Amino acid sequence: MENEPHAGKKNHFRFHAPHVHLAPVFGNDWFALKAEAFARFFGTPTFLVGQTIIVAVWITLNAVGFVHFDIYPFILLNLAFSLQAAYAAPLILLAQTRQADRDKAHSDADAQHREDLANASEQRASVAAEQTSHLLELVRQNTELTEITKKMSERIQLLTEEVHRRMTGKD
Description:
By secondary structure, the chain is an all-alpha fold. Helices cover 74% and strands 0% of the residues. The protein has helices at residues 30-41, 45-64, 75-168. Helix 1 crosses helix 3. The longest helix has 94 residues, at 75-168. The radius of gyration is 41 Å and the shape is rod-shaped.
């Protein structure tokens, strides 16, 4: 079965397959993959710690006078932060928008799955009701046959006794 990743196992994400194109947030090309990785990297502890270290070193080197390329009030550092924010904000907003699209698609797929489960459950209930009806009819017929068999057995017994009486002459 093509929807099953392993033989004998169901593909539990088969209802999500129509929405797989939404998986890459920015698309599938090189820029899109790098942009998504960049946007995801902004929220990591590695980025925050790394940026904090770079800023601390930047300020320390310029404040104590080891270098003089960005002296107090650190205008170049502010420009760097502005540039970073100018790129980060749109990337993060785009990632949030696409994530909302993916969440909606997955929600729709889950709703479809629940609807299919409800339909299957209704079908099973219908089949069970039909089978119960057939079973009750079979029980009714069996009861009738049992009664007929009992009456015939009694009739056979009476006839056997009558034949026996006639043969023995005990009328």
